[in-house]
Amino acid sequence: MIKKIELYHNAVEVLPMLKIHKDNKMGYLGLDCYDKAELGNLFKREDRIFIGSVDEVELNDYSINLLTKIETKEGNEMETLMIHGCYISDIEPLLKNEEKIFLGKIKNWMLIIVIMMTRKKK
């Protein structure tokens, strides 16, 4: 059984390759990406990425856009969903997306520092 997964930057592309078993009960899943390029082809996927049952999910920065790409086991009761800060322009793909979010019941939501400004263009 997989108890904890933490993937940073381009490593998040490994998530669908892990083939998490339907009966897996994970304590923690943490994903962290700083820009769209680090998501690789994940954002273009039509199939959802199954992550089993999870107690705590933490999404940082651009990885927030994966909310519509991951799916928990039916009946999952997540203890905590933490969404950490990013620029509002970084979550624009999620805001424009019409897909549903499949995470089951969430007991505690933590929205931490969503910065409501746009990045300066270089």
Distance between the termini: 44 Å
Shape call: globular
Compute the number of helices: 1
Major sheet? 5 strands, parallel
Q: In terms of quaternary structure, what is this?
A: single chain
Counted up, domains total: 1
Structural class by SSE content: mainly beta
Across the major sheet, the strand order is 1-2-4-6-7
Gyration radius (Cα, Å) is 14 Å
Average of pLDDT: 83
What's the helix-strand series? EEEEEEHE
Helix and strand topology:
Layout: E1 4-8, E2 25-33, E3 49-50, E4 53-61, E5 70-71, E6 77-84, H1 92-96, E7 105-112
Parallel strand pairs: 1-2, 2-4, 3-5, 4-6, 6-7
Give an overview in words:
Helices cover 4% and strands 35% of the residues. With 122 residues, it is mainly beta. The chain has a 5-stranded parallel β-sheet, with no helix packed on it. It has a two-stranded parallel ribbon with strand order 3-5. The longest helix has 5 residues, at 92-96.
Kindly list the characteristics that best describe this protein.
122 residues; mainly beta; five-stranded parallel sheet; two-stranded parallel sheet; 1 helix; 4% helix; 35% strand
Report a brief summary of the structure.
With 122 residues, this protein is mainly β. It contains one helix and seven strands, in the order ββββββαβ. The longest helix has 5 residues, at 92-96.
